[in-house]
User: Fold this.
Amino acid sequence: MDESQARGFQSCPARSQAIYARRGFPAPVKFLRKGKVKEVYEVSRDELEFVFTDQISVFDKVIPSLVPHKGETLCRTSAHWFKMVEGMGIKTHFLKVVDGDRMRVRRVDVIPDYSKLGPKTRNYLVPLEVIARYYVAGSFHDRIKAGKIRPEDAGFPKGHVPKYGEPLPEPFLETTTKLEKVDRELSRDEAVRISGLTSKEYAELLEIVLRIDGRLNEEVGRRRLIHVDGKKEFGMDGERRLMLVDTFGTADEDRFWDLAAYERGEQVELSKEFVRQYYRKVGYHARLMDARKAGQPEPDIPPLPDNVLKEVSDLYISLFERLTGETFR
Assistant:
């Protein structure tokens, strides 16, 4: 976030101040913003701190329930992958984990005006998200069924009808907007035009995504997991080098399945998709989609029952341990 955006924001919220005091840590200097699940603080002109909360969101809705230990699992999982990526010689914004749910990162400017981005812009957030898909699942499956994506566009033979859970013949990369109110899919030409990247830099960005996932897929495969899909974000550093930013490889950003179950013909969700499926089962997702299509007020998302919260918390902890090989406590 740049200085103009930082001006006018309040200082660290009282709740977070109390948490820092109880843990014996000094609070960051200034609260900048709160996303759906992360709080962002200014440490200096060059450094930010992410605080990963226990909140959870689905369908662009923040659920009025806290998932015990969720924030810490996301922070520590992402740190694990950042260290792996840096070992591959790929630059990231990661600096260090300060506490279980607090991460220090290099700061880049957020510039929502696309006209201000160009081949000479430095130290900024590239306003794109890149989604890499390896199996037919989720919204990708829905779009194939609806005819919005042709099977041959995903590498299947013409006339083939892909089944849910089927591996894709080749990775399927999609690029969406990052800073607009509602994410939208972008063509290659528009992604290059709005991002300030050159065609060569955009191609390099996609190549980095595939390199990272190639290594990640190998790692999780050894732990009897399948990496189904996931998103990544990038920035340009002060010398205009691509830099992996935000978080990735967690139960929130990526989809994982249990390999043993998959070999039995099942797709067991080991990610936030478990929560999405719960809201589909209870009918909330259908009511929400109907309201959005009709332009009517959206129904409030109900809290998760205590028994489901326990299942979700256990899922996040278990996946952290399987992804990283570490013990949570």
Summary: The radius of gyration is 20 Å. Residues 118 and 196 are 4 Å apart (CA to CA).
